[in-house]
Records
---
Amino acid sequence: MSKRMLFGLLALVLILSLAACGQPAPVEEPAPAEEAEGEEQIELRFWMHQNPAFIAANEEIIKRFEAEHPNVTIKLESFEYDLFIQTLQTSMPAGTEGDIMEMFGSWVCSYADRLAEMPESVLSYPEAKEQFYAAPLDGYYCNGKLYGLPNEFNIENGAVLVNPAMYEAAGLDYPPTWGSMTDLLSDAQQLAQSDGDVMNVSGFHFVSGDGLAFQFLAGILQRGGEYWKADGSGMDFNTPEAKETLQDMKSWVDQGVTDAFLFNGESNWVGDSFFSNQVAIGFIGPWIVPVGLEEYTDMEFDYLPIPNYAGDKHYFAADAGWGKLVSPNCEHPEMAWEFVKFATTNADNAKFWNIGTGTVPALKSVAADPTLLEETPWVEASLQVLDYGSYVGPLPDRDLFWYDIVYPHILGALQETETIDEALDAIDTESNAMFD
Amino acid sequence: MRLPVRANRSRRRNRGGGSRGQGLFVASALTPLMLYMVFWTLFPMIWAMLLSFFEYAPTRVGGPLLGLGGDNPFVGLGHFANMLSTSPEAQKFRTSLKTTLMFAFLVLPLNLAITIPLAVAIEAVKSRLKTVFRFIYFLPTVTSSVGVALIWGYLYHPQRGLFNMILKTVGLSPQIWLSNPRAFYFGVPLALWAIIFTYLWQDMGYNLVIFIAALQGIPKDFREAAVVDGANIWQVFWRVTLPLLRPTLLFVCVMTMLSSFQVFDIIQVMTENGRPQDQARVLVLDIYLSAFRFQRMGWAGAEALILFLVVLIVTVVQMRLLRTQWEY
């Protein structure tokens, strides 16, 4: 073979390799649904984050919908959580996002420009308010427009994980009958254990990235305070109620119920450390319970109501929950909204979804359904306080507020790297900077 | 005798000195790589630089041209001016930049202090053992960074970690390695030291192999001549070996600094977004969070441009200081 032929052959191989690399992997087309006579075949893409329980629940809802609408095929595509957010951010400007998306309610207002407004013919906001709890619903209501409907009432407040074995080992009465936080803290002090200077069991682990902000806002509300300015133009944390709440939290640490250096969001996170017997009482949302039941089958634990931080009503702020929305680029918006309504307002479907995912219902009728507790008994503690929940409010950036503003500064106060006044000042300044 | 025209044509050389067929082959081989570099490196760089002059979020509908303008307004040098202000994001930027510089300028001398003597020691052993040592020390380099970070995270665990078990065994106080914002050593947070040691453990094998190869390339005559002239082992190393390693040193320093400035995965896995109290929050992590967590891509683009300039300046300085005019 001459050199010219050899070079030509190598060049051809390179070009073919490049062409092959550029070819997308062949996609197996799903078998088409039986075409109903005279009806257009519709295919919709449904985007969601990866969580096995959530995927299973949505797949069943999709199956039910497809059974009622034989001309419709809904293709579920799931993404790892962090990748889901990035995928939304890159696909939306390109107009290639899914037709229906399952998003977290507190994201909705920041994505509102890229979402379809829900037609009033599907469900108006006043009608939705009658069916859904305000806290989850208001996450989907931005600037007077409703963009979707929730499936979940995301609640971190109201109850705590409790380890009965530790109670027994400490000789304490179980189940506990906490009349107030003082009773809970008293138990926690006795349950905490240390090996020398190092705490190896936290009596009451309340310091987590999610939990601190929820407890902080609940503490303010239960003391009769507010964290929004009267005109709604920003937030106000330089209030007596905010200071009292933070002082209380600091006092818990000072009483020795936990070590804020060893037990926080980065070190011995409550969701892991409770199930490895390092925490006696852990503050976390009810969504952890099905995780614990599935992954720690040998461990006995309970999810019990937590007393009010102050006052006689368990007021708290919630940041919506997972729900369903439609893309403005969807070619079949009527059918997409039909699915959203099917999945969220139909009590059977909504209940199935909540049971499958282990979440608290956003639909009032499901929360009132006595059969719910037969399948998910642990949500009873959360159901008792749902009426006291309110939507956290129109935060420009929920994640920034929660994880980069409130959590680090409260943690700083608990670890004494900043004073309580400094922490409150910083939270106030930085949260108001979000509105600039 | 005149050669046939066809033979002349086949032997016609291009300006570079190779035949036309060779030129075609080179062009074919380089084209895919060039296309890759243009689409996946150059265009994103240009886009990031462009974004740094806008307040851009992908969730907002901007103007008709690439989504710029409209709700994603042009801010000119606004982001760069903001970096000097007292705003929360500016403070985080300056903290991240300081942490990045601290990290990079600690990693480099520590890395060299470990790898050069180790390379000299390995070079001095028998050839069979050399291979074994090279393999052992290079193994961490080819291990997944995420895996390394997870395992070292367990080693640093305050209650169950190996390091604290060792400390307790020898009668010392256990440390809260990764989550105590009040622990500082030599002015550097303990969490950052913990990450530096992890990074060194994983990264040193790469430089070690390079130094070993460089040492093998130094003619033995130089060292033998020094010994004959009465130099001891330390003098041979310091006056002969080390200066002759300078070209390699330049390469190693530049590459180590480049990768140190871009460290991300180890910190992201071992700490929660650079905590405690942003003590391990490096600039690449801040860029990632700004762009993909908080959707402030314009600000992230501006940070990325500053990082690029810092890395460029450091690299140019290194090349000026360490370049050599000789070879052997």
---
Amino acid sequence: MQNPGEWTRPGGSFAVSCERVSYSYPGSGRPALSEVSLDLRQGEYVGVVGPNGGGKSTLVRLLNGLLRPESGRVLVTGRDPATEPFEVRKHLGVLFQNPENGLVAPFVEDDVAFGLENLGVPREEMLGRVARAVRAVGLEGYERREPHTLSGGEKQRVALAGLLAVEPEILVLDEPTSMLDTAGRREVLEYLQDLHSEKTVLHVTHHLEELTGADRILVLNGGELVADETPERFFSNADLLRENRLVLPVVPRLALKLGFPPAKLSTPEELAEAILARTQSGTRSR
Amino acid sequence: MKLELRDLRHVYARGTPFEVEALRGVSLVVEPKEVLAIVGGTGSGKSTLVQHMNLLLVPTSGQVLVDGADATTLRRSELRRRVGLVFQFPESALFAPTVEEDVAFAPRQLGLDEEEVRERVRQSLRALGAGHLAGRSPFALSGGEKRRAAIAGVLAMRPEVLVVDEPTAGLDPLSREELLDLILGLRESGVSVVLVSHDLDEVAEVADRVCVLHEGRVSAVGTPAEVFYGDPTQAPATVRVTSLLRGSRPEIGDPVRSQETLDALRALQGT
Amino acid sequence: MTTRGLGQFYPVSSPVHALDPRAKLLATAVFVVGLFLVDSTVGLLFVAASLVALVVVSRIPAGTFLRLLRPVLFIVALTLLFQVFFSREGVTLFEWGFLEVHSGGLRLGFFLALRLLLLVSSAGLLTATTAPVALADGIEDLLSPLKRVRFPAHEVAMMMTIALRFIPTLGEEAEKIKGAQAARGADFTEGGPLRRARSFLPVLIPLTVGAFRRADELADAMESRGYRGGEGRTRYRELRFRVSDALALSLTLFLLVVGILL
């Protein structure tokens, strides 16, 4: 499926690399992306945050060839998405924000097969890959369901299955949970979690609690890359958060204010344990 | 205004193979000047319930009472003026060439004179922090701006009860906080707010009372502390943290909002 | 909650449902052509009886099927009345002022109305017994010989599949927008037809704008998944022509010939 040698072409051994990339939407006064340079190593899990209109969605579209940069260079597995979009899309899949408008076919299994059909995969092979992808997102039994009967979380999982069937090495997630309710968000994140170890993931989001396991967090604001930090340093930097219209989720915020490292404690259970441990050891040492 | 729902039942598609009982006997009161949160998972009946509050949906059985009077006896337009309903993703219903034209729709439908209409438009937009958007096309705005324009459109009717269904859905975190502040502001000005939400953390910050719906029935109703500490597995993060500590440190009490939770936890640590 | 009506698939299992969609499409086409070749009342009644038999075999409940016909009842009635009151053929049966009812008009009116009903019924039977995906595949297959003359058969089929996929979604969206505007005091029931049509603008405009936005997002999603037209595409769904399909087609032809001869 993948040939590691291919990636050591110009672009180094990076899965994704952007070199001083700029882009402006037609008719817009200011650039959506301005001289942005970033690299993604194979297997990394990188978060991308920033205010709306800051360039996050533009970046996603430049990576899969929907947009072509005005200047600078984008390389995905050593290829230029603007000139070889079809090739790149075999290796890089995008999960979009609105699951509703990404489902093409009248039935779940047909939609999951859509990407494979586009690639000209023979039918016998498709059957197996579709079945595996459906299983990978926990939707066995849903094959003949119609999209409009599904919940938001289920729709997004169908979209994810459609991506996984193509077996790309790189996944780009463009705010995949922002239109879902709590239950849907939890469902989708559960299945996304499993993928971090096998794939290179770029995760654009507003929900910082989704990035506690990230290797790095990139901040895009006003079309510029303004920060590249570990989650720990990022969560503790109040100025950086405020400037980028970000809010720490409840548990990390409490953790920070109580003097704990915010990125390590993301669930209520973890915070409670930490508090108990500290107060117990506190009384003991008194 | 006191809005009461008495033993509400609602069956969709009655008599067909697609029949489904969305509400199975819900009784609820909306008191004046409060923020009442309605929570529950998908399929709990939240959206069905709130559409009865302005009789967009008519109950299969049970009653909707406005200040003691049966709502079906009131003129529909009057009821819908007094109980304003904002759907989820309300910006999908924006249609006029400019924001102020769109916000003017509801007051004009009420038959108010132009000057009154203009005044209401101005005030509503200002309340939503969207005065600068008046002359813009609603289709050229950002998601958050569209959301404000849509809510202003309902607020322009000057309802006594404002029902908002998932008002912060899809918004970035800072916009959510701004919108929640607005909801608190509305309560201050005398409007009751019925907040339908799946986000318990946001409910924790603004609700005076909480009603939990499960499969078409009310499974709990009361103050946030009563409801959430009653079942800490389905509670906001703050309550989940403190409920795990209450066993060994009961002095922590029952805080719900993040500030009071922080204070209690600090006291616990001795910091 | 569901948008059932003209053209909606009714999922039960029946011999008709199991037929290859291409056979059904061809049979429907043959039926429609044949319908205009039948010129005797007896023949038409025979054809009607055959169609009724088919509906029974397809296990679609009568009530559901009749509901499919509701939208066209107005036109059918209009056709009937027009012929009844304005045709001057045959014997005068009844007179009232300038309105005259002749036997010829009655016969013709009945004939034309029945033909129209059968036309719509055959289309309704087709869509009720054939899943949208299968229908689109069938159409794409049947049209593919035209690719040689640059006819975009695949694109047409893809457009149909997408349209079918989004009909329920757009239906729900329309309901929601209607509710939102009603909550703001919109009244869709008062006034004459012109006023009422105008009152739908606050629903039609956002629905249309929303549809365009959806189309944009869908196009992005499709491209991102490697879509680039029909070139080099394989198909997940398989269509296989069987003996039963050939039999069904022959039967349709036979019944029509009988009808024409009668």
